[in-house]
Amino acid sequence: MTQDAEEKMGTGTIIQTNLPAQQVHPDLRRIVLTGFMGCGKSTLGRIMADRLGWTFFDLDECVEARTGLSVADVFALHGEAHFRHIESCALVSALGKRHTVIALGGGAPEVLKNRLLLEQTPGTLNIFLEAPFPVLFDRCVLQGISRPVLADPETAALRFARRQPFYRSLAHHTLAVANLQAEEAVESLMPVLAKPPKRVR
Ligand code: S3P
Known about the structure:
single chain; 201 residues; five-stranded parallel beta sheet; binds shikimate-3-phosphate
């Protein structure tokens, strides 16, 4: 059986994924990847969505689509509070989707409303991609993407430390990614998807 993860929708439409049904728990509706910048949320999310035949949803891209601005420009022109507001709106719409892998922005779990949404939306598996700050900082520098939150390394390190308890408390599953290639990381997460989303903690 290669395409037997089927679900009958109210319309009678049948959705098929690329994985056998038994590899994805039937209660699992969406997978959320969390962690600090550079941990690979978007890269792993795309690979995972592709393997499952699910949709990939990147919260930062959604903010950019809603505002017509880059994330850096939203910060520069409207400030972080405005960015966080749009990010929360994007999260609400992401959590309404099924068969979706969601890459959060690294700061989203700092917001209480976002944490409550992530904890309380049924069928949601929160996976924390963990790595030490120096590893992630170096990766971001190498990627050369402009991230407002990294402008000052000392402040970024403080944010990193402040966020760890939030990432951990949300996580149904934590994966140490510092020494893994993206494909290896996704491979090691596959067995987790077979467990009921509320009981993997
Ligand atoms: C941020 C992380 C970024 C983006 C924005 C703020 C943060 O997302 O949302 O620059 O506060 O850590 P990534 O974690 O996807 O880089």
